[in-house]
Amino acid sequence: QVQLVESGGGLVQAGGSLRLSCAVSGNIPMINVRNWYRQASGKQRELVATLIRGGSTNYADSVKGRFTISRDNAGNTMYLQMNNLKPEDTAIYYCNLKDWVGKAYWGQGTQVTVSS
User: Is the pLDDT of residue 75 over 90?
Assistant: First the structure.
């Protein structure tokens, strides 16, 4: 059974940094896309960062230059390095994977709170 478990969230002051991790267990055939999403209270879930098989990345305009998505060499863990955090980054952050047929897998989310 596939499981995605996020960690690394917490409370940080504006300007600070956090590194989120997403540990993947179980067998996912040929992961094509790795994503980080977030959902702030009362808002829709939004795509924050994408890492495509082959190494290219995409970021939401609101986080460009501040967030970096990556994975370990084995592909078992993905990361979101978040620097220069702002209060508007406060949200629950979710990792998401899509396999080669487009099946999506989700983690349970980790809370990030940025105080001003």
Answer: no
